[in-house]
Amino acid sequence: MTRVNPKRKKARAGYMISAVAELYKLHPQTLRLYERVGLLKPSRSDGNTRLYTDSDLERLEVILTLTREMGVNLAGIEIILNMREKMAEMQHQMEAFTSFVQQELARGLRSVTARPQDDALARVPPPKVIRVHKG
User: Fold this and answer.
1) Series of mean pLDDT values for 10-residue runs along the chain (135 residues)
2) What is the domain partition of the chain in residue ranges?
3) DSSP assignment of the chain, as one string?
4) What is the pTM for the complete model shown?
5) CATH assignment, 6-98
6) What is the rounded CA–CA span in Å between residue 78 and residue 3?
């Protein structure tokens, strides 16, 4: 049985720097600069060729929108991308927390409705309604 090298599989799914540069009308040095300052982190093939994944291209599109359309410098882009990552993580945490609370509420409601009131420590009569008349 032949085992597939995960790097090779990844290499087939990646785009080389020349193709990305041509697609986005960039000089390859610009992509290298983005990598050097930490804005992009393309994977590497066994031959050390940069390979850009679809998620790398999505990130590049954000970078290009910020630079070309909004005039944001590289330092600003780094801050914005870091904030976006933190916001995505917070969103994930909020969704997990909301799901947990919903499960706990459902579990609590099931236990309240399933438990007969005859098991209570002390019987409590139903509340009496008192009418107040405005005079």
Assistant:
1) 41 82 96 96 92 95 96 96 96 96 85 61 75 75
2) 6-98
3) -PPPPHHHHHHHH-EEHHHHHHHTT--HHHHHHHHHTTS---EE-TT--EEE-HHHHHHHHHHHIIIIIT---HHHHHHHHHHHHHHHHHHHHHHHHHHHHHHHHHHHHHHHHHS-GGG-SS--PPPPP------
4) 0.64
5) 1.10.1660.10
6) 39
